[in-house]
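Narrative of accomplishments. A recurring question from our advisory board has been how the design workflow behaves on a single, concrete structure rather than in aggregate. To address it, we present the structure tokens for one chain from the evaluation set, followed by the sequence designed for it. No filtering or post-editing was applied between the two.
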């Protein structure tokens, strides 16, 4: 029977991808050490969409939450389930998830990051997941207390919704270290919570999850709007638009215009941060790091994508088209090499 289960539920854009990359890169080594990541990264994502019963679940998805839990139940050591989408579960869905993992000792892990960096990153991730809403509208809704999709993924709400289901000593809030900190600090904090020994995991050089510039992300938002009913589900959208446009082209573009929150919202962010920290100081949980790290360390001004000119968007589109020519040529050359390799293989087999 499973001894302990660590459920890492987010937050999105708080270093989750980095932590998950280390975990899945070392899946075999962790398993040998008695720590299981059940199934695969894709399976855990599909299980999350099943648990949450989301409208955007890939119709071709096969993994369910019960399958994931069932596959881990007989493991005699520790289990780690990690998907930042879990943080958006309702109270009922979270309760179902925790019940399904018992009688194992269930721990809940939440990662918190400062809002000055989180809000632009989360909006960008929304756009990269097919959203068509503008940045200013996104911020305005949050200012009014709307946009539950955002609020439900904040550390405060996730701890209330998930953490309340387990004893205080099994609730863990890890804070993201400020810019300039050693890049392994976040991983070391996560490993300390989950009991992963120092040196067990090989950590390869992690490529930064590059942000798009203001013009590039606005171009993508407009593309999403123009797509209409095409690519309605997350999986085909990621396989098509992210794989062939965002990752190989837009991320490699100039991205000269840094986008972010304007100075007109500076005090709102600072006040909201103080409220969050005060609430977390009063909430019984295990804090790994320092709540002061939730305060913005760099309030540098940036441009909103809503302020980008038509000329700047056109320049970004032209750059993307130029990049597309080279990208398509590369795909064609690789396909031709693959065909020639197969032909030579067949000729060699016939002659031998």
């Amino acid at each position: 029977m499973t001894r302990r289960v660590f459920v890492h539920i987010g937050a999105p854009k708080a270093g989750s991808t980095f932590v998950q990359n280390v975990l899945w890169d070392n899946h075999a080594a962790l398993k040998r050490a008695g720590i299981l990541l059940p199934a695969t990264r894709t399976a855990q994502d599909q299980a999350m969409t099943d648990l949450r019963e989301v409208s955007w679940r890939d119709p071709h998805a096969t993994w369910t939450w019960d399958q994931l839990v069932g596959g881990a139940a007989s493991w005699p050591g520790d289990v780690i389930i990690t998907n930042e989408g879990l943080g958006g579960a309702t109270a009922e869905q979270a309760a179902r998830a925790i019940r399904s993992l018992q009688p194992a000792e269930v721990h809940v892990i939440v990662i918190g990051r400062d809002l000055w960096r989180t809000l632009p990153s989360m909006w960008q991730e929304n756009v990269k997941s097919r959203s068509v809403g503008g940045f200013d509208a996104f911020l305005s809704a949050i200012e009014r207390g709307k946009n539950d999709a955002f609020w439900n993924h904040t550390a405060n709400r996730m701890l209330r919704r998930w953490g309340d289901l387990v004893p205080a000593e099994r609730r863990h809030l890890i804070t993201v270290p400020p810019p300039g900190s050693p890049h392994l600090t976040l991983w070391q904090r996560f490993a300390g919570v989950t009991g992963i020994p120092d040196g067990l995991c090989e950590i390869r050089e992690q490529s930064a999850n590059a942000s798009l510039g203001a013009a590039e992300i606005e171009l993508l938002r407009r593309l999403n709007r123009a797509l209409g009913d095409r690519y309605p589900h997350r999986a085909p959208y990621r396989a098509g638009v992210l794989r062939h446009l965002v990752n190989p082209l837009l991320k490699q573009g100039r991205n000269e215009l840094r986008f972010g929150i304007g100075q007109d919202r500076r005090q709102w962010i600072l006040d909201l941060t103080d409220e969050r920290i005060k609430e977390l100081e009063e909430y019984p949980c295990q804090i790994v790091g320092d709540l002061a790290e939730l305060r913005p360390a760099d309030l540098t001004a940036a441009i909103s994508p809503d302020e980008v000119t038509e000329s700047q968007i056109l320049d970004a589109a032209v750059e993307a088209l130029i990049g597309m020519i080279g990208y398509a040529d590369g795909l064609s050359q690789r396909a031709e090499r693959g065909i020639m390799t197969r032909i030579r293989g067949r000729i060699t087999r016939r002659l031998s």
